[in-house]
Protein backbone atom coordinates (compact mmCIF):
# COMPACT_ATOMS: atom_id res chain seq x y z
CA UNK A 1 0.00 0.00 0.00
CA UNK A 2 1.42 3.39 -0.99
CA UNK A 3 1.78 5.82 1.90
CA UNK A 4 0.58 9.30 0.91
CA UNK A 5 0.79 11.16 4.21
CA UNK A 6 2.49 10.76 7.56
CA UNK A 7 1.13 12.72 10.50
CA UNK A 8 3.41 13.04 13.53
CA UNK A 9 1.82 14.46 16.69
CA UNK A 10 4.33 15.37 19.40
CA UNK A 11 2.73 15.38 22.83
CA UNK A 12 5.20 17.86 24.28
CA UNK A 13 6.71 16.43 27.51
CA UNK A 14 4.51 13.32 27.76
CA UNK A 15 7.26 10.94 28.89
CA UNK A 16 6.71 7.34 29.91
CA UNK A 17 9.39 6.47 32.45
CA UNK A 18 12.96 7.30 33.42
CA UNK A 19 15.81 6.47 31.07
CA UNK A 20 18.73 4.42 32.42
CA UNK A 21 20.83 7.59 32.79
CA UNK A 22 18.07 9.59 34.53
CA UNK A 23 20.21 9.76 37.69
CA UNK A 24 22.71 11.96 35.85
CA UNK A 25 19.95 14.52 35.34
CA UNK A 26 18.42 14.28 38.79
CA UNK A 27 15.34 12.54 37.40
CA UNK A 28 15.23 9.21 39.20
CA UNK A 29 11.59 8.24 39.70
CA UNK A 30 10.23 10.49 36.97
CA UNK A 31 7.42 8.98 34.92
CA UNK A 32 5.20 11.70 33.52
CA UNK A 33 2.34 9.48 32.36
CA UNK A 34 2.31 6.88 35.14
CA UNK A 35 2.82 9.35 37.97
CA UNK A 36 0.16 11.71 36.63
CA UNK A 37 -2.28 8.83 36.24
CA UNK A 38 -1.62 7.71 39.80
CA UNK A 39 -1.91 11.22 41.21
CA UNK A 40 -5.41 11.71 39.79
CA UNK A 41 -6.64 8.18 40.51
CA UNK A 42 -6.50 7.04 36.89
CA UNK A 43 -6.63 8.54 33.40
CA UNK A 44 -9.46 8.05 30.91
CA UNK A 45 -7.80 7.80 27.49
CA UNK A 46 -9.82 5.20 25.58
CA UNK A 47 -8.63 6.20 22.11
CA UNK A 48 -4.94 6.24 22.96
CA UNK A 49 -5.56 3.10 24.99
CA UNK A 50 -6.98 1.34 21.94
CA UNK A 51 -3.74 2.13 20.11
CA UNK A 52 -1.80 0.44 22.92
CA UNK A 53 -0.77 3.18 25.33
CA UNK A 54 -1.65 1.02 28.34
CA UNK A 55 0.30 -1.88 26.82
CA UNK A 56 3.62 -0.01 26.93
CA UNK A 57 3.74 0.24 30.74
CA UNK A 58 1.06 -0.12 33.44
CA UNK A 59 -1.02 3.07 33.64
CA UNK A 60 -3.85 3.57 36.12
CA UNK A 61 -7.17 3.92 34.33
CA UNK A 62 -5.79 2.68 30.99
CA UNK A 63 -6.15 -1.11 30.85
CA UNK A 64 -4.05 -3.35 28.69
CA UNK A 65 -5.79 -3.61 25.32
CA UNK A 66 -6.10 -7.28 24.31
CA UNK A 67 -6.02 -6.42 20.60
CA UNK A 68 -4.70 -2.97 19.80
CA UNK A 69 -5.72 -1.23 16.59
CA UNK A 70 -2.14 -0.22 15.89
CA UNK A 71 1.53 -0.60 16.76
CA UNK A 72 2.89 0.52 20.12
CA UNK A 73 6.31 0.87 21.76
CA UNK A 74 8.65 3.46 23.20
CA UNK A 75 11.87 5.29 22.30
CA UNK A 76 15.05 6.23 24.14
CA UNK A 77 16.97 9.43 23.48
CA UNK A 78 20.62 9.03 22.49
CA UNK A 79 21.53 12.71 22.61
CA UNK A 80 22.57 14.17 25.96
CA UNK A 81 19.97 16.54 27.37
CA UNK A 82 16.25 16.64 27.90
CA UNK A 83 15.05 19.77 26.14
CA UNK A 84 12.69 20.50 23.27
CA UNK A 85 15.32 21.26 20.66
CA UNK A 86 17.38 18.16 21.44
CA UNK A 87 14.37 15.85 21.26
CA UNK A 88 12.93 17.32 18.08
CA UNK A 89 16.34 17.48 16.40
CA UNK A 90 16.97 13.81 17.13
CA UNK A 91 13.63 12.89 15.54
CA UNK A 92 14.79 14.79 12.46
CA UNK A 93 18.14 13.00 12.29
CA UNK A 94 20.54 15.04 14.41
CA UNK A 95 22.05 13.17 17.37
CA UNK A 96 24.03 15.54 19.56
CA UNK A 97 27.41 14.56 20.97
CA UNK A 98 27.38 17.40 23.48
CA UNK A 99 24.40 18.91 25.23
CA UNK A 100 23.41 22.51 24.65
CA UNK A 101 24.89 24.84 27.30
CA UNK A 102 22.87 25.68 30.39
CA UNK A 103 23.33 28.49 32.88
CA UNK A 104 22.27 27.36 36.37
CA UNK A 105 23.61 30.59 37.90
CA UNK A 106 22.31 32.94 35.24
CA UNK A 107 24.21 34.37 32.28
CA UNK A 108 27.65 35.98 32.73
CA UNK A 109 27.33 39.60 33.78
CA UNK A 110 29.62 40.81 30.99
CA UNK A 111 27.26 39.22 28.46
CA UNK A 112 24.23 40.81 30.12
CA UNK A 113 25.99 44.21 30.00
CA UNK A 114 26.64 43.77 26.27
CA UNK A 115 23.05 42.68 25.72
CA UNK A 116 21.67 45.69 27.59
CA UNK A 117 23.81 47.98 25.47
CA UNK A 118 22.55 46.29 22.30
CA UNK A 119 18.86 46.63 23.19
CA UNK A 120 19.22 50.10 24.62
CA UNK A 121 17.86 49.45 28.11
CA UNK A 122 18.63 47.59 31.30
CA UNK A 123 17.24 44.20 32.28
CA UNK A 124 15.82 42.51 35.37
CA UNK A 125 16.30 38.99 36.70
CA UNK A 126 19.05 36.97 35.03
CA UNK A 127 18.18 34.01 37.24
CA UNK A 128 16.90 30.46 36.90
CA UNK A 129 13.16 30.65 37.42
CA UNK A 130 9.71 29.42 36.53
CA UNK A 131 8.07 31.68 33.95
CA UNK A 132 4.98 32.30 36.05
CA UNK A 133 6.98 32.94 39.21
CA UNK A 134 9.37 35.40 37.61
CA UNK A 135 6.64 37.66 36.24
CA UNK A 136 4.89 37.53 39.59
CA UNK A 137 8.10 38.57 41.36
CA UNK A 138 9.40 41.16 38.89
CA UNK A 139 6.32 42.15 36.87
CA UNK A 140 5.62 45.33 38.84
CA UNK A 141 9.22 46.53 38.67
CA UNK A 142 9.22 45.75 34.96
CA UNK A 143 6.13 47.88 34.42
CA UNK A 144 7.63 50.74 36.44
CA UNK A 145 11.04 50.69 34.75
CA UNK A 146 10.38 49.33 31.27
CA UNK A 147 13.21 46.84 31.74
CA UNK A 148 12.57 43.38 30.23
CA UNK A 149 12.86 40.32 32.47
CA UNK A 150 15.64 37.93 31.47
CA UNK A 151 15.68 34.41 32.89
CA UNK A 152 16.62 30.84 32.12
CA UNK A 153 15.82 27.34 33.40
CA UNK A 154 17.47 23.95 33.68
CA UNK A 155 17.13 23.82 29.90
CA UNK A 156 19.29 25.60 27.35
CA UNK A 157 17.16 28.73 26.97
CA UNK A 158 17.45 32.51 27.16
CA UNK A 159 13.97 33.85 27.89
CA UNK A 160 12.78 37.44 27.75
CA UNK A 161 9.48 38.33 29.41
CA UNK A 162 7.68 41.63 28.92
CA UNK A 163 4.21 43.07 29.44
CA UNK A 164 2.69 43.70 26.01
CA UNK A 165 1.47 47.15 27.07
CA UNK A 166 4.95 48.13 28.32
CA UNK A 167 7.11 46.63 25.57
CA UNK A 168 5.15 46.06 22.33
CA UNK A 169 5.48 42.65 20.71
CA UNK A 170 7.56 43.91 17.80
CA UNK A 171 10.09 45.38 20.23
CA UNK A 172 10.16 42.22 22.35
CA UNK A 173 10.74 40.13 19.26
CA UNK A 174 13.55 42.49 18.19
CA UNK A 175 15.19 42.06 21.59
CA UNK A 176 14.99 38.29 21.25
CA UNK A 177 16.49 38.33 17.77
CA UNK A 178 19.37 40.42 19.11
CA UNK A 179 19.92 37.83 21.86
CA UNK A 180 19.80 35.02 19.31
CA UNK A 181 22.46 36.72 17.21
CA UNK A 182 24.66 37.37 20.25
CA UNK A 183 24.49 33.91 21.82
CA UNK A 184 27.22 32.13 19.90
CA UNK A 185 30.06 29.70 20.64
CA UNK A 186 29.97 28.36 24.22
CA UNK A 187 26.93 30.61 24.81
CA UNK A 188 24.92 29.07 21.95
CA UNK A 189 21.74 28.08 23.78
CA UNK A 190 19.16 25.90 22.08
CA UNK A 191 16.44 28.55 22.07
CA UNK A 192 15.75 32.19 22.78
CA UNK A 193 12.11 32.57 23.77
CA UNK A 194 9.93 35.67 23.81
CA UNK A 195 7.53 35.42 26.78
CA UNK A 196 4.93 38.21 26.56
CA UNK A 197 2.32 38.65 29.29
CA UNK A 198 -0.63 40.85 30.19
CA UNK A 199 -2.67 41.71 33.28
CA UNK A 200 -2.28 43.70 36.45
CA UNK A 201 -0.15 43.08 39.56
CA UNK A 202 -1.23 39.86 41.19
CA UNK A 203 -3.02 38.75 38.02
CA UNK A 204 -0.29 38.58 35.40
CA UNK A 205 -0.85 35.94 32.74
CA UNK A 206 1.34 34.89 29.84
CA UNK A 207 -0.24 35.34 26.42
CA UNK A 208 -0.21 33.08 23.37
CA UNK A 209 2.16 35.43 21.51
CA UNK A 210 5.22 33.47 22.56
CA UNK A 211 7.87 33.14 19.85
CA UNK A 212 10.88 30.79 19.78
CA UNK A 213 14.20 31.59 18.13
CA UNK A 214 16.01 28.31 17.59
CA UNK A 215 19.49 27.79 16.22
CA UNK A 216 19.88 26.44 12.72
CA UNK A 217 20.40 22.67 12.62
CA UNK A 218 24.05 21.90 11.81
CA UNK A 219 23.15 19.40 9.08
CA UNK A 220 20.31 18.65 6.71
CA UNK A 221 17.26 17.35 8.56
CA UNK A 222 14.38 15.04 7.68
CA UNK A 223 12.15 17.94 6.67
CA UNK A 224 14.66 19.15 4.08
CA UNK A 225 15.12 15.71 2.57
CA UNK A 226 11.35 15.43 2.20
CA UNK A 227 10.93 18.91 0.72
CA UNK A 228 13.76 18.34 -1.76
CA UNK A 229 11.98 15.15 -2.87
CA UNK A 230 8.89 17.21 -3.71
CA UNK A 231 6.89 16.39 -0.59
CA UNK A 232 4.82 18.97 1.25
CA UNK A 233 6.15 19.49 4.79
CA UNK A 234 3.40 21.00 6.94
CA UNK A 235 4.07 22.34 10.44
CA UNK A 236 1.58 23.12 13.19
CA UNK A 237 2.38 25.15 16.30
CA UNK A 238 5.98 25.74 17.32
CA UNK A 239 7.40 23.12 14.92
CA UNK A 240 8.50 25.80 12.43
CA UNK A 241 10.31 27.72 15.18
CA UNK A 242 12.02 24.62 16.58
CA UNK A 243 13.52 23.76 13.20
CA UNK A 244 14.20 27.41 12.27
CA UNK A 245 11.93 26.94 9.25
CA UNK A 246 14.25 24.41 7.58
CA UNK A 247 12.35 22.33 5.03
CA UNK A 248 8.95 23.65 6.11
CA UNK A 249 6.73 24.32 3.10
CA UNK A 250 3.49 25.22 4.93
CA UNK A 251 2.88 26.46 8.47
CA UNK A 252 -0.15 27.04 10.69
CA UNK A 253 0.40 28.70 14.09
CA UNK A 254 -1.57 27.42 17.07
CA UNK A 255 -2.57 29.14 20.31
CA UNK A 256 -3.01 25.97 22.35
CA UNK A 257 -3.53 22.21 22.09
CA UNK A 258 -7.09 22.37 20.83
CA UNK A 259 -6.24 25.03 18.27
CA UNK A 260 -3.36 22.83 17.12
CA UNK A 261 -5.81 19.96 16.57
CA UNK A 262 -8.03 22.33 14.59
CA UNK A 263 -5.06 23.31 12.42
CA UNK A 264 -4.15 19.66 11.92
CA UNK A 265 -7.69 18.96 10.76
CA UNK A 266 -7.40 21.90 8.35
CA UNK A 267 -4.23 20.44 6.86
CA UNK A 268 -5.88 17.03 6.56
CA UNK A 269 -8.84 18.62 4.77
CA UNK A 270 -6.49 20.24 2.24
CA UNK A 271 -5.53 16.78 1.04
CA UNK A 272 -1.89 17.59 0.31
CA UNK A 273 0.37 14.58 0.34
CA UNK A 274 3.51 14.59 2.47
CA UNK A 275 4.42 15.10 6.11
CA UNK A 276 2.42 16.92 8.80
CA UNK A 277 4.14 17.55 12.15
CA UNK A 278 2.26 18.93 15.14
CA UNK A 279 3.48 20.04 18.57
CA UNK A 280 0.98 20.10 21.44
CA UNK A 281 2.72 22.49 23.82
CA UNK A 282 0.17 22.83 26.64
CA UNK A 283 1.22 19.65 28.45
CA UNK A 284 4.69 21.10 28.95
CA UNK A 285 4.13 24.84 29.12
CA UNK A 286 0.93 25.06 31.14
CA UNK A 287 1.06 21.97 33.34
CA UNK A 288 4.40 20.16 33.48
CA UNK A 289 6.49 23.20 34.35
CA UNK A 290 3.88 24.32 36.87
CA UNK A 291 3.58 20.95 38.62
CA UNK A 292 -0.13 20.97 37.82
CA UNK A 293 -0.83 17.25 37.53
CA UNK A 294 -4.59 17.77 37.55
CA UNK A 295 -4.38 20.15 34.61
CA UNK A 296 -1.99 17.75 32.88
CA UNK A 297 -4.46 14.90 33.25
CA UNK A 298 -7.39 16.98 32.01
CA UNK A 299 -5.38 18.10 28.97
CA UNK A 300 -4.57 14.49 28.10
CA UNK A 301 -8.23 13.53 28.37
CA UNK A 302 -9.25 16.59 26.32
CA UNK A 303 -6.89 15.51 23.55
CA UNK A 304 -8.12 11.93 23.62
CA UNK A 305 -11.69 13.11 23.05
CA UNK A 306 -10.60 14.91 19.86
CA UNK A 307 -8.84 11.92 18.33
CA UNK A 308 -11.91 10.43 16.62
CA UNK A 309 -12.12 13.65 14.59
CA UNK A 310 -8.54 13.15 13.47
CA UNK A 311 -8.94 9.46 12.75
CA UNK A 312 -12.08 10.07 10.68
CA UNK A 313 -10.01 12.23 8.31
CA UNK A 314 -7.30 9.64 7.71
CA UNK A 315 -7.23 8.17 4.22
CA UNK A 316 -6.22 4.68 3.19
CA UNK A 317 -2.64 5.80 2.57
CA UNK A 318 -2.22 7.79 5.79
CA UNK A 319 -0.16 6.91 8.86
CA UNK A 320 -0.70 8.78 12.12
CA UNK A 321 1.97 8.65 14.84
CA UNK A 322 1.97 9.89 18.45
CA UNK A 323 5.13 10.44 20.45
CA UNK A 324 6.84 12.97 22.76
CA UNK A 325 10.14 14.86 22.93
CA UNK A 326 11.05 14.40 26.63
CA UNK A 327 9.26 14.23 29.97
CA UNK A 328 8.13 16.90 32.43
CA UNK A 329 6.73 15.01 35.39
CA UNK A 330 4.28 17.35 37.18
CA UNK A 331 4.27 15.22 40.34
CA UNK A 332 7.95 15.67 41.28
CA UNK A 333 9.40 18.63 43.21
CA UNK A 334 11.27 19.75 40.09
CA UNK A 335 9.56 22.04 37.57
CA UNK A 336 12.06 21.13 34.86
CA UNK A 337 11.97 18.61 32.04
CA UNK A 338 12.72 14.99 32.95
CA UNK A 339 14.95 12.48 31.18
CA UNK A 340 12.45 9.83 30.05
CA UNK A 341 11.48 7.34 27.41
CA UNK A 342 8.71 8.56 25.13
CA UNK A 343 5.72 6.59 23.82
CA UNK A 344 5.30 5.50 20.21
CA UNK A 345 1.82 4.82 18.85
CA UNK A 346 0.86 4.19 15.22
CA UNK A 347 -2.49 4.11 13.44
CA UNK A 348 -3.38 3.60 9.77
CA UNK A 349 -4.85 1.17 7.29
CA UNK A 350 -1.35 0.03 6.36
CA UNK A 351 -0.24 -0.42 9.98
CA UNK A 352 -0.26 -3.77 11.73
CA UNK A 353 -2.67 -4.35 14.58
CA UNK A 354 -1.72 -5.63 18.02
CA UNK A 355 2.04 -5.36 17.49
CA UNK A 356 4.60 -4.43 20.15
CA UNK A 357 7.52 -2.59 18.58
CA UNK A 358 9.51 -2.73 21.81
CA UNK A 359 12.12 -0.12 22.62
CA UNK A 360 13.87 1.90 19.90
CA UNK A 361 17.38 3.05 20.80
CA UNK A 362 17.06 6.54 19.31
CA UNK A 363 14.43 9.09 18.30
CA UNK A 364 16.27 9.16 14.97
CA UNK A 365 14.84 5.72 14.17
CA UNK A 366 11.43 7.37 13.96
CA UNK A 367 12.71 9.98 11.52
CA UNK A 368 14.31 7.31 9.34
CA UNK A 369 11.03 5.38 9.36
CA UNK A 370 8.98 8.44 8.38
CA UNK A 371 11.40 9.08 5.53
CA UNK A 372 11.09 5.50 4.25
CA UNK A 373 7.30 5.59 4.49
CA UNK A 374 7.37 8.60 2.16
CA UNK A 375 9.92 7.10 -0.22
CA UNK A 376 12.98 9.03 0.96
CA UNK A 377 16.25 7.90 2.53
CA UNK A 378 18.07 9.74 5.32
CA UNK A 379 21.59 8.99 6.64
CA UNK A 380 20.82 8.84 10.38
CA UNK A 381 18.61 6.37 12.25
CA UNK A 382 17.49 2.81 11.63
CA UNK A 383 14.10 2.49 9.98
CA UNK A 384 11.63 0.01 11.45
CA UNK A 385 9.08 0.29 8.62
CA UNK A 386 9.28 -3.39 7.79
CA UNK A 387 8.20 -4.17 11.37
CA UNK A 388 5.08 -2.00 11.42
CA UNK A 389 3.52 -2.36 7.96
CA UNK A 390 1.09 -5.10 7.08
CA UNK A 391 2.53 -7.59 4.66
Order of helices and strands: EHHHEHHEHEEHEEEHEHEHEHHEEEHH
Uncertain residue ranges? none
Count helical runs: 14
What's the shape? globular
Distance between the termini: 9 Å
- Report the radius of gyration as a whole number of Å: 20 Å
Average pLDDT, rounded to a whole number, is 96
Strand content: 15-25%
Oligomer: single chain
Question: What can you see in these coordinates?
Answer:
It is a single chain. With 391 residues, the protein is of the alpha/beta class. 34% of the residues lie in helices and 19% in strands. The protein has helices at residues 32-39, 46-51, 53-56, 84-91, 109-119, 131-145, 169-182, 222-228, 239-242, 257-270, 282-288, 293-312, 364-373, 385-388, and strands at 5-11, 71-75, 124-128, 149-152, 157-163, 191-198, 205-206, 211-214, 232-236, 250-252, 274-280, 318-323, 342-347, 355-360. Strands 10-9-11-1-12-13-2-14 form an eight-stranded mixed β-sheet, with helices on both faces. Strands 3, 4, 5, 6, 7 and 8 form a six-stranded mixed β-sheet that branches. Helix 9 (239-242) links the parallel strand 9 (232-236) and strand 10. Helix 10 packs parallel to helix 12 (293-312). The protein is globular. 53% of the residues are buried. The model has no long low-confidence stretch (mean pLDDT 96).
Amino acid sequence: MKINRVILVVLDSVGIGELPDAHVYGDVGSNTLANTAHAVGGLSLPNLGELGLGNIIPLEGIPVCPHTSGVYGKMAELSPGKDTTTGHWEMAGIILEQAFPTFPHGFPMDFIAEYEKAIGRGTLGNVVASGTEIISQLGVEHMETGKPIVYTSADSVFQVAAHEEVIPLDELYRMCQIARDMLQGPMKVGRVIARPFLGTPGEFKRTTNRHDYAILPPRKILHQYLAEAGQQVMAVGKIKDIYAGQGITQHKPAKNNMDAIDQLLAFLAQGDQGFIMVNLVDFDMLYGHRNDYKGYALALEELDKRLPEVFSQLGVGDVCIFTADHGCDPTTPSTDHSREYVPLLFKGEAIKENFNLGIRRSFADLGASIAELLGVQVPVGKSFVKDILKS
